[in-house]
Amino acid sequence: MPYLIDFPVIGEPEVGYISVAENSNHIPFEVKRVFWTYGTPESIVRGRHAHYTTQQVIVAVAGRILVTTEMANGTIQLFVLEEPGKGVYIPPNVWHTMQYSANAVQLVMASTGYTEEDYIRDYAQFRKTWHRA
């Protein structure tokens, strides 16, 4: 099930902050890939897919990102990411979409390298796949 992760926030307003994500302490998988998105217009909805095996943690390092998830049982959750010290864990077989505020920067840590075969990009196929489970 998707859930929020609180990362350590170290620092003070006078000098700034640092947050840390370590595999053994904060991320529930070994990170194999890191990518980031930026410059996404507010009217665009990204994501629109699920993964067969990949796990992800999504962080809004700048701006606000609305992450909507749909579980195999039909449960829908909305996560509002607007603090760089918080992330959302996305397990496999969870449909997810993201919408961004102006100047938002999204950082994603993934459990696998990129393979197109791991993606379920068609919503009807996603529903068909999880209904068989």
Automatic annotation (TrEMBL):
Residues 4-129 form the Sugar 3,4-ketoisomerase QdtA cupin domain. InterPro entries: QdtA_cupin_dom (IPR008894), RmlC-like_jellyroll (IPR014710), RmlC_Cupin_sf (IPR011051). The keyword Isomerase applies. SUPFAM superfamilies: RmlC-like cupins. Keywords: Isomerase. GO terms for molecular function: isomerase activity. It holds the Pfam family FdtA. Coiled coil: none annotated. This is dTDP-6-deoxy-3,4-keto-hexulose isomerase.
